[in-house]
Amino acid sequence: MVAKDPLFASWSLKKLRATVFNDIWPEVLFFSLVATMVVMVSEWTPHKLHISNQMLTVLGTVLGLVISFRTSSAYERFQEGRRMWSNIMVASRNIAIMVWIHVPSTREDKVNGGHKPLLESVIEKKSIINLVQAFSVSLKHFLRAEPGIYYADLYPLICFLPRYAVQPPAVPTKDDLLPLWNDTVEGDSVFDNPTGVTSARSGRSTTTLSDPNNGEKTSDGTAPRRAPSRRQKAFDPEQVLPVFVSDQPLVPAWNPPEVTFWDYFGFLRIFRPVIRLIRGRKTGDLTVSGRKKKKMDVESNVPLEITLFLSSYLAWLLRNGLLQPAIATGMVTNISSLQDTFNNLERIRNTPLPFAYQAHLRISLWLYLFLLPFQMYDAFKALTIPATAFAAFLFCGFLEIGQEIENPFDYDENDLDLDQFCLMIQRELHEVTAHSSPDPSTYIFSAWNQPFAPGDRRTAEEMVADVEHDYHKEEPGAGLDSVRRTLLQSWRDVDNLTRK
């Protein structure tokens, strides 16, 4: 996403593509040619192509208001999309904190007696938090019309989930495949390759599903990491994810349309379909003006499936008495927030502005710009040409901006940076799991804590050790009164010293 002020930032080809210059040049050129025709005929022939400008001001004002409403409504969708992603960040963080802090790690083994290993509980909680991270990643791919789970940043987070509706020793069939594993990028199910996996790097069959890494280990005992793609040589956030060889080729986490010559020189795109026809290549993915067609909307059940697993985990915690009711209510609320946000983002993604409104507005604008030079010539003469070009640039530009940002989830330079949102969630979740939940007494009563400052700048360790101080008086209320006087003095000092 390009968001710098163009007046103070250095220009580049990427920033040029972030503008709408390449998208509106045919319209600007056409109306400039109309203005040129009006000026040439009026100047070089006895005919004066001039009509009354009575309606110029009224229609221009009305059309400007309508275009402003169009742009504002599109920008509202853009801002709503950003707010929804903020909700996902908050809900993901809350769920992770509740699971990591409030779900107990020390548990009784009701079957064999004694206590379950602490490691098993930690692995269980960390795996659930990975599912929380997977929700945002799967939602990102859904909004970009990328169905399935076989992506470099999604598959490692959810590949441990069950694939079939039956349990061993029953032999699974294709009909037993769960919905999560049916919707793949290649259009083929996992069941089509049940005995081998396909390397994400080379696409060759290498091993069995029970041993996804084929026994390969590095010197530190971990599985080998994928070779970074061309884009990832300098920035490879997927290198921190688990490494598994998948049964389908993994699509890169960031897979935008290829940038070509036509994207930098948009005014030549009109010749692109002709060149393709001459070369005998297909033109079905191009519009008449040579632009690439937008991806079709897709349905994806991956975010829904992940929330189902989170809900089933919550139900399991409640059945086993591992969660307090108040925390369970908070988890239900935040899981519901993820589902509501998913529905709202789906609404923004799959509900464009009605075609009748867009068509009527654009046709009205074209008619206005077509008649504009006829109304301006009597006052502007030869300046009608640049004036018409500027008006076309202004009106068509705002209209195109509204059309571009009404779906802010693709790979365009003006779209929301969904990859960064997912990485922010990933960093926050890992920060949560890095918290060790120490006993408060191990860090509160230390030499690094001055809780009563500035009224009393002694450390907590010194105050506890000084048993002769008034704080330790055993008379009813005496010690507490002394503490209150100190805190009151702290308030006076802060109130006086923090005011200008």
From TrEMBL:
Pfam families: Bestrophin_2 (PF25539). Keywords: Cell membrane, Ion transport, Membrane, Transmembrane, Transmembrane helix, Transport. Residues 195-216 have a biased composition (Polar residues). It is a multi-pass membrane protein. It is found in: Cell membrane. It comes from the Eukaryota. The keyword Protein biosynthesis does not apply. GO terms for molecular function: chloride channel activity. The keyword Transmembrane applies. PANTHER family: UPF0187 PROTEIN YNEE, VOLTAGE-DEPENDENT ANION CHANNEL-FORMING PROTEIN YNEE. This is Uncharacterized protein.
